Amino acid sequence: MILKTGDSAPNFTLKDSDGNDVSLSNFSGKPVVILFFPLAFTGVCTTELCSVRDTMKEYENLDAAVLAISVDSFFTLKKFKESENYNFPLLSDFNKETAQAYGAIYDEFFGMKGVAKRSAFIVDSQGKIAYTEVLEKASDLPDFDAIKSVLKDLS
Question: Could you tell me which of 20, 46, 24, 48 has the C-alpha nearest to residue 35?
Fold first, then answer.
């Protein structure tokens, strides 16, 4: 399923890096940036999430939450978060249901089935999709300038 601007965002409940349940619905009333990334501890994923970590104040100033999701286990995500000092939740979509619901999953990625595509979504305060970017090439990064521009328009 391909999500479009204006569609209702699929709700989800996933384990964070500490094993706690986190639901999209927990953030209702504020915009949420959802970043799907293929795999923890890989070069481009680390670059992407470090970029977000280093500009987190900009997201906070726009009253936006950031959630990063991969198909890694929450145990792996805990180590990844600790090693890079990420200041936002990393969520485990180990069963791949959320990536599928958002249309952000590779059929095959370097021989592995069901790895999340690098993708960015903004869910507005009403639970509607305000921005979508699903990248086919895992080496590409989301357009963070466009993401921040949409967040500014929402505020």
Answer: 48
How many residues can be counted in the chain? 155
pLDDT digit string, tens, across residues 80-120: 999 999 999 999 999 999 999 999 998 877 887 889 999 99
Residue 52 near residue 34 (C-beta atoms within 8 A): no
Residue type (1 letter), 62: L
Positions annotated as catalytic residues are: 45
Q: What is the DSSP letter of 117?
A: P
pTM of the model: 0.95
Delimit the domains of the chain by residue range: 13-154
* Distance in angstroms (rounded) separating the CA atoms of residues 28 and 40: 27
| Percent of the residues in the chain that have a pLDDT greater than 90, as a whole number | 90
DSSP state of 6: T
Q: What is the pLDDT of residues 16-50, one digit of tens each?
A: 999 999 999 999 899 999 999 999 999 999 999 99
13-154: which CATH number, 1.10.3080.10, 2.40.30.10, 3.40.30.10, 3.30.160.20? 3.40.30.10
DSSP state for residue 133 in the 8-state scheme: E
